[in-house]
User: Fold this.
Amino acid sequence: MTQLFRSLIFVPGNNPRFLEKAKTLKADIVCFDLEDSVPDNEKTNARKLIKSALKSRKSYESSIFVRTNSPSSGRIPDDLKEIVQKGIDGIVIPKVNNVTEMKNIEKNISKLEKSRKLKPIQIIPSIESAEGVVNTYNIASFSKRVSAIVFGVFDLLNDLGIEYTKDPEGGKYSRAKIPVDAKAAGVASIDAIWQDLEDLKGLKKDCKIGKNLGYSGKSVIHPDQIVVVHKLFHPNKTEIQWAKKVCSVYLKSSKIGKGATTVDGKMIDEVHYKQAKTVLDLVKN
Assistant:
């Protein structure tokens, strides 16, 4: 796995200025949002703007994901119809409760990929409920598409009937369980956002807690948080070793004219090579 998951920043899909500004962001994943940051009467407009932005994929330095609406909203089929196209790297599914929801979504994605002749798209489920926490391992391991799991603390606390604080006691079990389940399933885990944009000291402390729990990175809501998060979520030994192997195997393969090859049974191509090289460049600096 050469994709970096140190930072995932949400960008409102209905804001053309923010979508344009996202081209300069240094987050590992830029996630165009169709859910919480977009009012109901703006959903259709947001889909159109994101569809247009994906056509300019080469202008974005980061991996590009899109967060759909939740399974319970009934809007995912319309979301996928617009966003599953060339230029998208993955999809974040919010408020996932169980595997049944994910299977239905994957079936829809597969049909669109086949009809549009697209490469397989990654999926990152977001765990934001008590049911989702209980089912995290099954959700994380249900498909090879799943590359990471996101922890969504605010909706979880709401589900539990707990008021949000910067260090909510009631969310500690869930926060600790998610990276364990993700690791057991062989995928990365991304910690919840830090809401207070003025409290960078608190953000640093929260990142250290998350890293010590086993998270690969953190969701962020403002560009100023990216540098702090990247500094504290540096690539680990496993990621560095994997990156070295990918670079070595891909270069040997490309010398004999092969554009794609495999590493430990997983297909890699130029995209994986570039991501692996990014990891090694980070270690050098």
Summary: The chain has twelve helices and ten strands. The chain has two domains: 7-232, 240-284. The radius of gyration is 18 Å.
